[in-house]
Each structure stands twice: as C-alpha cells, then as structure tokens.
Design brief:
Blueprint: H1 8-108
C-alpha cells in the first residue's frame, strides 16, 4: 500500500521482499489501530447515548408526574364547581317550592 512512498535507501537495505513485508506489517498495524479506535469510539458513543437516554427518561417521567398533578388539581376544581352548582340548584328548587306553597296557601285562604 505504501510502497510508492518508500525511499531508495530503504529499498536497498531491505530489498523487495523486506519492503513488501514491511508494507504488510504496517498495513496490519494500521488496520488493528483503526479497529481499536472504532471500538473505543463506539463504546464511548454507546455510553454517552445511554447516559443521555437515562436523563431523558428521568425528565419525561418528571414531566408526566407534573402533568398528572395538574390533571388531579383540575379534577378537584371541577368537582368543587359541580358541588357548588348542585347546592345552588337545590337552593333554587327549594325556594321555588317554598314560593309555590306560599302562593297556594294564600290562594286557598277565604
């Protein structure tokens, strides 16, 4: 692979076979280095991705719990309004019945 970059002095000292073996040894070392670098980068990426996903899960869980609390508070507010309106409606009905009874009693007096 790197044969074109070798100097003439190196070729004279090692010979053609030595230069070919040097190239293959350098290629093998380079390949191992690339594989180790890729493994290290992949491990770091997986670790970082796991950390970020964990943080995201915690944040989502917190937001869901906050939404649940808001829904519970809203339900309580609605229940209070409905109870108040029912009490008011009962008061109106009782007042109407009382007025009708009063009118009926007054109408039946001679």
């Amino acid at each position: 692979m790197f044969a074109f970059a070798r100097s003439v002095v190196l070729k004279e000292k090692l010979g053609n076979e030595g230069l070919i073996e040097l190239d293959s040894a350098l290629d093998e070392v380079g390949q191992r280095w690339r594989n180790q670098t890729l493994e290290t980068a992949a491990d770091r990426f997986e670790r970082r991705l796991t950390q970020e996903m964990s943080a995201l899960r915690v944040e989502v869980a917190n937001e869901f719990s906050a939404v649940r609390m808001e829904i519970a508070a809203f339900r309580l507010s609605i229940i209070r309004w409905v109870a108040g309106l029912l009490i008011a409606q009962a008061g109106v009905i009782i007042g109407t019945v009382f007025a009708m009874m009063t009118f009926l009693v007054n109408a039946l007096k001679p």
